[in-house]
Amino acid sequence: MLKANACFRRGNRLFREKKYADALPDYRAATEASREADLAFSRLGMTYGKLGRWGEAVPPYRRAYEINPK
Q1: Cα 44 to Cα 8: distance, rounded to the nearest angstrom
Q2: Please, are residues 8 and 43 in contact by the beta-carbon 8 Å criterion?
């Protein structure tokens, strides 16, 4: 869980800096370290969207919704 949090925080920093391609590996690592990290899946989908990779954005968004439909 610590790895997931560290990766998520680093991904968030890079996302804020608009370094979307650099943020992807961190968000992927966060989702792999914690399969229940709805915010990490949501942010992964958002990052794919920012990169115009819409087809790759859908599965993480779907997983985030499955984890937390609210």
Answers
A1: 10
A2: yes
Domain ranges within the chain, ordered by starting residue:
2-67
CATH class of the structural domain 2-67: mainly alpha
pTM, to two decimals = 0.93
What would the DSSP string read from start to end of 5-31?
HHHHHHHHHHHHTT-HHHHHHHHHHHH
Cα dihedral value 34, 56, 46, 1, nearest 10: 10
Residue 48 burial by Cβ neighbours in a 10 Å radius (0-12, 13-18, 19+): buried
Q: pLDDT tens digits, residue range 37-56?
A: 999 999 999 999 999 999 99
Cβ atoms within 10 Å of 18's Cβ, excluding its own: 9
